[in-house]
Design brief:
By secondary structure, the protein is α+β, with helices and mostly antiparallel strands. It folds into two domains: about 150 residues, FdhE-like fold; about 120 residues, FdhE-like domain (FdhE-like fold), CATH 3.90.1670. Helix content is about 40%, strand content about 15%. The protein has nine helices and ten strands. Strands 3, 4, 5, 6, 7, 8, 9 and 10 form an eight-stranded mixed beta sheet that branches. It has a two-stranded antiparallel ribbon with strand order 1-2. Helix 6 packs across helix 7. It is globular, with a radius of gyration of 19 Å. The relative contact order is 0.14.
Length: about 300
């Protein structure tokens, strides 16, 4: 199913009378709305926020992503037989560290930079954009490779912000063109079934036929997939989980901590705020990250756009 479509109808286990509905296993992204929704939510969250200017800048980045996602030509489709082979082998068909990128992803980067440069930006952002423009194709591709492989150097953290933003657009467009019925969840349930990346956060639904379902949202291709609750998404244990929040902060954003592996992941509760966005609310809740890290829990995986945060 596509995100933003009609509520999932679900499937019945056993008798339809009194049976148990099962949630959709995964929801593919809609690139035409994904980044605009994040930009709108960031602006809402920025109002009165101590990091207002940074959140407003990140909203401009999301605006640029939206423009790239909605103006660029469609990316050539992947051969369905290759997708079927990957799924049969329980390998993500868009494996981020093995996928051969189409050159069009760099067009998305150019559109993103154009959109940002048309706005009043802080001087560091202007300088960073100029440096990106001066780079060769090979240099940009090297940054993209290092980012996707997790081997990025500290010196490239600034460039990684724009490269990661462009790659999010590219992979979201690829994932949005897949057939959800042809995909399967991975044995490692904490990884995206489309590209194999880690989630940026989880959302606990408040509506549909199966309210209370947890979906994890991919940090790269924006696919959402179902993951059972009360189980650590890092080590899959369930004995030592707890929720932590910031006193006086939004109760809709919680950190699910695991004392077995000493990691945590952000969980967003729609029942407490129906407007939560898995990407914007993560960026706006850095205070929660600081609080939990002081308790010696490590984040399950970083937000790609927080490498320079």
């Amino acid at each position: 199913m596509r995100q933003g479509g009609a509520p999932p109808t679900g499937k019945w286990v056993g008798s339809p009378q009194g049976g148990v509905a099962t949630p959709e296993p995964l929801l593919l992204p809609d690139p035409s709305t994904r980044f605009a929704a994040t930009a709108d939510r960031l602006r809402t969250l920025a109002d009165g926020h101590p990091m207002r200017e940074w959140l407003q800048f990140m909203a401009l980045v999301a605006d640029g992503q939206h423009k790239a996602a909605t103006t660029l030509a469609a990316i050539p489709a992947i051969d369905p037989s290759l997708i079927a082979q990957s799924v049969a082998a329980r390998i993500p068909p868009l494996a981020a560290d093995g996928h051969h990128r189409h050159a069009s992803w760099r067009n998305g980067l150019a559109v993103l930079l154009d959109a940002l440069e048309a706005q009043p930006l802080p001087e560091p952002a202007v300088a960073l954009s100029a440096r990106m423009r001066a780079r060769s194709i090979d240099e940009i591709e090297d940054v993209a490779d290092d980012f996707l492989r997790g081997t990025l150097s500290v010196d490239e953290a600034g460039a990684a912000l724009y490269v990661a933003a462009a790659l999010q657009v590219y992979f979201a467009k690829l994932a949005g063109g897949l057939d959800a019925t042809a995909l399967r969840l991975l044995p490692q349930r904490g990884l995206c079934p489309c590209c194999g990346s880690t989630p940026v956060s989880g959302v606990i639904t408040a509506s549909g036929i199966t309210p209370g379902t947890r979906y994890l949202y991919c940090s790269l291709c924006s696919t959402a997939w179902n993951h059972v609750r009360a189980v650590c998404i890092t080590c899959e244990s369930s004995g030592k989980l707890s929720l932590k929040g910031v006193d006086g902060g939004s109760s809709a954003v919680q950190a699910e901590t695991c004392d077995d592996c000493r990691t945590y992941a952000k969980m967003l509760y729609q029942a407490r705020d129906t407007k939560v966005d898995p990407y914007a609310d993560d960026l706006a809740s850095l205070g929660l990250d600081i609080l939990v890290s002081e308790g010696d829990w490590a984040r399950h995986a970083p937000n790609p756009l927080l490498l320079v945060g």
